[in-house]
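Justification of computing resources. Each target in the renewal requires a structure prediction run like the one illustrated here; the chain below, 174 residues long, is used simply to show the kind of job we budget for.
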Amino acid sequence: MKSGLRKNPDLKYRKWIVALGILAVTCYSSANWYQLLLIHGDSMYPAYHDLQFVILDKHTGVYSYGDVIAFWCTGLDALLVKRIAACPGDQVWIQGERLYVNGKESQVFPADLVFADAGIADTALLLGKDEYFVIGDQTAKSKDSRFREVGCVREEDIRGRVLPETVPFFRGGK
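Resulting structure tokens:
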């Protein structure tokens, strides 16, 4: 004799709807948290080089000295990738081919790195509460905060932090 209990066919569809909802939320979240980014140029060499894919962490929101960030530069109408040399509230300047932050020589870049072009940092700059001073690792090849076209980077223009590990299956042109 059969039991009077039957499986509810609506339950099967509810499970699919819940599974599809979870999948949609996951896809939306990951698309808004991470982005594949292609590096153009060698201004960040040797850390990153031309035609190298990297992953951009778009949800961090907390940036510090030495972080490599991607930001929108209105003056060059481009997305740039540079290293943070100074943070909000810092005083920054370049004197005698050396970079100084808050009166001390910066520890972000190697001690033997030369800053031949001081640009707008030839006199002390006081960064605002939402401004960062960024410089490319190849100082001779980099358009960065030292140049008026770029200037200090506002936090609202930062798109995210480049993750230190590159995309393993494609290392780019070099």
